[in-house]
Amino acid sequence: MIRFATLFAAIDQTTSTNAKVEAMASYFAAAPPADAAWAVFFLTGRRLKRLVPGAAIREWTMTATGIEEWLLGECYAVVGDGAETAALILDQLPSTASESLSLADWVEGRILPLRHADAQSQQAHVLAWVRELTRWERLVLLKLLTGELRLGVSQTLVVRALAQTAALPATTMAARLMGEWTPGAAWFRSLLSDGVTADDLSRPYPFFLAAPIEHGKDVAQLLGDLAMWQLEWKWDGIRAQLVKRAGRVHLWSRGEELITDRFPEISDAAQSLPDGTVLDGEVLAFRAERPLAFSALQQRIGRQKQVARKARDIPVVFMAYDILEHRGRDVRANSLSVRRTLLEHYIASAPSDAGPSPGHEQLLPFDAPRDVGHRTLRVSPVLSGASVDDLARLRAESRTHGVEGLMIKRFDAAYGVGRKRGDWWKWKIDPFTIDAVLIYAQPGSGKRASLLTDYTFGLWDNGELVPVAKAYSGLTNEEIAEMDRWIRRHTAERFGPVRHVEPVQVFELGFEAIAKSARHRSGVAVRFPRMLRWRRDKPASEADTLDSLRSMIR
Amino acid sequence: MLHETANGVYCPDGDFHLDPWHPVPRAVITHAHGDHARSGNAAYLCAAPCAPLLQRRFGPDTPIQALAYGDSLTLGDVRVSFHPAGHILGSAQVRVEGKAGVWVLAGDYKRAADATCTEFEPVTCDTFVTESTFGLPIYRWEQTATVIAEILDWWDVNRQKALTSVLFCYTIGKAQRLLTELGPRIDRPVFVHGMMIPMIDAYRAAGVVMAPTVPLIDKPRGTSFAGELVLAPPSARGTPWMRRLGELSDGLASGLMRVRGVRRQRAYDRGFVLSDHADWPALLQTITETGAGRVLTTHGHAEPLARFLKSQGLDSGVIRTAWEGEGGGDDSE
């Protein structure tokens, strides 16, 4: 544990990526494989199913120190992290650092069994463990318990450190880390081994990500010859890879979560694909030949128990736009034009849905056009545009097609890894905008701890400001610091860490979608609200009204 | 006896302001930091060891009257005296005695040992005005020696990697405290940014013994500072001056660094939790030792500290000031 806590501290205490890789590589070289396996698990952002709720940690901290709840709340507002707040306050309990258990012993021998203990013995165990540990170890323990351990390294860096340790190519290591695995000494050894393992069969490839075309960019200059580019819609669904190998289908989300069971119609349809196929595409809620709103798809994600009923109400498709593995061969190094030909040929020549899954006709009450063959499996159509003006026109039509803009991909580009600029662009539609007034502010979390960065905005309704959106992002660090100072000096009232501020500051907010909502006082809910501009020029009295927002609902 | 006004905390019975933020006829100053001692006042009154620092800041002709710690002066209907606050050289609590009893305005203070200044002295009073920069139970300081050892370890590791160690700290107090602590433990000079020099000189003139320092500016262009330790004010961070330092690792010495998020937000490699302010236990200990029945809190976490004191049965409230403590910005400890 002490070695892992030291790794955590070493990563935390440098802004240099090389130093982070170096710290990980020396950890992997020195730690026992069982420990290293768990370290990889946590470093790649995986977490133990939350064993102990944050509220319990707060409760125990109060019990152990006599601090009242409101004061703990004030502390949290400064620290912005529950486990760290507790660790800092528990610092007053002396540490009787004893023999150090290994990370694997901690996780497997102590932390996981806690799941079966009642609340009282959980408290007794955890408070006793805390006393055995130093401050960094306490922080790590509490974060493990609440499932919020984040080590601040990207997947790419972990891959680099492991590849360095194993002397393997980074791409191999990246593929091995995808998908599901159970940490253990044997697994860690196979991770570093040079053979091909059985688990390799379910694994997706690292996703290639598009870079955004920022507002105000000269698109013509950016793209050059338009004949070099393939145009598609930017679908607003769940990015996913559909893997069919050795007779089995796996559907992976971009978050590397296995979502096969959530969408049985997709895995049924994919049974017809030949073994050794990996498609990249988008899961979309889809009816009457057009995508449904993302909020419809969300209902399919959350509820595993009602899959069948939801599948009837909200049909989905897999809109494929790339092929990464063809007849068992990794084809990512081929150009997009080659891959596209393979993809179209594949989908078009595969048998139709009806076979493998009886009852599908009822599930999918729409007809697919002939040229895409499959109903549940589709190919994202290629759009045509001869000029940047054509592109701009297509982009402007996006909302009427239920998509969120354009994807622009180089015909001659290989399928890369991560977000590499230049080969794939996404040109999203301009967001909806409103000018709203800042009414509440509270401290942010993580890196924004103790800065007042989380804002609530209101719109005018009968002479009153009604809260409509919370927004956290969009300001520069300088603007954040300036607003922080301003808010502190213009706080009308405090409710614990929340400050009610004088209604003066106006911000232009952008958001992606708007829907009616019974759960919000304003009667509307907006999606992805963020600050686009600080309207220093605009007095609060000239901000928008709630009616003007309501009128945007389609 | 003390009132909040637009210019600062005012004592009508003695006709003076305490650490005013706008120019006034008579300013009583607790210590030389920028948010407490501002220029332009017609007359200054401060503790004797504070006077040379104010002169460095405002010029030799500044009208300053100084009192030795413990000596008193009658102003109008009150008696004023200064008592050590242990914050920085010359820092003082101001005791005001009048019809309304005894008030002590502590200014900024700490209880940890600091060889650069006189140790804090509890003063019995009826009303105690305390800072609350770190007025939350998350703030507890380690032993100074522990933090100094962390700094030395960091410097050692950086030297092995041929990196320059750049330690940001406030120019009045923190820099000198670090140099005093480092002095007996190192065998080479510490390089300092030009803004550090006047106050290091002032401390030396006052007899404070520190590690030898070399102004970076004295070195010709192209000099390598790999493996060296450089002290600089946080305001120098990100300026072209930094280009002289080559590949580096940077850190900030401040109580704010107790919170990871605050360090990460400012993207320092290392945060060294070293503060010239009282931590939570020291605040509570001090408040008890003054025996005050009423405690007013100001700047930093004034509201929660006052609320906590009320819950402990004390008469307590907040007074609003423009003093910033360590929370105001990297430069305003």
The CATH architecture term of the largest domain in chain B is 4-Layer Sandwich
Q: Kindly state the percentage of residues in helix of chain B.
A: 10-25%
Structural class of chain A: alpha+beta
How many DSSP helices of chain A? 21
Tally of separate domains of chain A: 3
Strand content of chain A: 15-25%
CATH class of the largest domain in chain A: Alpha Beta
Shape of chain B: globular
Total beta strand runs of chain A? 22
Radius of gyration of chain B over all CA atoms, rounded: 20 Å
Q: Into how many domains do the coordinates of chain B divide?
A: 2
Radius of gyration of chain A from CA coordinates: 26 Å
CATH homologous superfamily designation of the largest domain in chain A? DNA ligase/mRNA capping enzyme
What are the salient characteristics of this protein?
A: 554 residues, alpha+beta, DNA ligase i, domain 1, D-amino Acid Aminotransferase, Chain A, domain 1, OB fold (Dihydrolipoamide Acetyltransferase, E2P), 3 domains, 7-stranded mixed sheet, 7-stranded antiparallel sheet, B: alpha/beta, Rossmann fold, 19 strands, globular, disordered C terminus
